[in-house]
Amino acid sequence: MTGKMITFPVNGSETKGYLSLPPSGSGPGLLVIQEWWGLVQHIKNMADRYAARGFVTLAPDLYHGESTTEPEHAMTLMHQLEIPQASKALIGAANYLRSHEANSSGKVGCLGYCMGGGMSLLLASKGAIDAAAPFYGVLPTGLPDPSTIACPVLGHFAENDDATAAVPDLEAGLTAAGIRNQFFIYEGTEHAFCNDDRPEVYDEAAATTSMDRTVQFMMNHLS
Q: Contact, 83 vs 139, CB < 8 A?
């Protein structure tokens, strides 16, 4: 683990997050948003991996220190999350990254997994980021109307996953709105195929390919 926990301002208060810097000391900003488990070690590891690829990464703690390994508890935590408040926290995180002294471009992208994938699209609908890469994104309140999204989107979804049913409408809506978008559906994969802490669903080939594609996408739009 190469990063550290920090606090950043949100509407007069503070929220915690995990900040990781690239080896060069500077790069574009990139938010990494948690799955429904919380800010667990896997998400910190992903922030470190993207930092190693050249980004100033920040993984906000949307559950304020709480996390779980139990699916039922995770479901409860996700449904208890107040989406408007979480959205404000993420906008605060994006603003923090945008003005961070290590941000070489002044731009911020966002990627997220599961719930975090849905939140990345929500941020994109609020004009808070410059590029979004949702991984198998879901939200308990439903994904935002694609016509409200105003930045390029690169989506990664699993073949064997109910969340993938949202892809045709997202793709059509973004294209109709004139937003650059591309969606990949990874053959033979399950939801959470990037999570190497869950060997029952992890797919190394899909995880590696989707990360490589995301790095290139973010560098193209944030540099």
A: yes
Which strand ranges, in their side-by-side order, compose the sheet holding 4-10?
4-10, 13-20, 56-60, 27-33, 103-113, 131-135, 153-160, 181-190
Spatial separation of the C-alpha atoms in residues 183 and 153, rounded to whole Å: 8
Question: Looking at residue 75, which CATH number applies to its domain?
Answer: 3.40.50.1820
User: What total of structural domains would you count in the chain?
Assistant: 1
- The pair phi, psi for residue 33, each rounded to 5°, is -105, 135
Q: Which domain holds residue 67?
A: 4-222
* Residue located via tokens 């991996």: 49
Tell me the angle at which helices 83-98 and 115-125 cross, rounded to the nearest 10 degrees.
Answer: 70
Contact in structure between 10 and 17 (CB atoms under 8 Å):
no
Residue-level pLDDT at 13? 87
What's the chain's length in residues? Answer: 223
pTM, entire model:
0.96
CB 142 within 8 A of CB 165: no
Report the range of poorest mean pLDDT among 20-29, 136-145, 196-205: 136-145
C-alpha distances in Å from residue 13, one per residue of 10, 49, 109, 207: 5, 29, 23, 36
